[in-house]
Amino acid sequence: MSDKEVILTQDGLKKLEDELENLKSVKRREVAERIKVAIGYGDISENSEYEDAKNEQAFIEGRVITLEKMLRNARIINADEIGTDAVSVGSTVQVKDLEFGEEMEYTIVGSAESNPLENRISNESPVGMALLGKSRGATVDVNVPAGTIQYKIIDIKK
Description:
Distance between the termini: 31 Å
Family: Belongs to the GreA/GreB family.
Mean pLDDT: 92
Domain Transcription elongation factor GreA/GreB N-terminal: 6-76
Order of helices and strands: EHHEEEEHEE
Oligomer: single chain
GO molecular function, one term: translation elongation factor activity
Strand order of the largest sheet: 5-4-3-7-6
Organism: Saccharibacillus kuerlensis
Protein name: Transcription elongation factor GreA
Number of strands: 7
């Protein structure tokens, strides 16, 4: 993983810090206990509990390293930086699909915070990139695998 800048909202920063704290203080202890118990079962060469615990430990340590690197390279978007004149990271954008007439609302976030199920889309996604910098009333073309979608920007909020 490169030392790429990670753009985070204040909420996103808190979630990553909370996850890191939980991994370091709770999960590490839990998995160490599981390893200790598994070693108590005797021969570790054919011990699936030991193998599972070691794999989980490796995953936790990898995630800790990833989170620490993300937090080190984080650029926090403050509410003052988010305008309502043009779409930026941190903006909540109401758009209308011009083909189907349905309206959707997306919050543009950095890739570390994206969660399409919560309509939090990355500034690096096709929709996010198409909306960035555009103003209320603008029509944007978004190239997606299924073709091109046209959105009209209805509203931009903080």
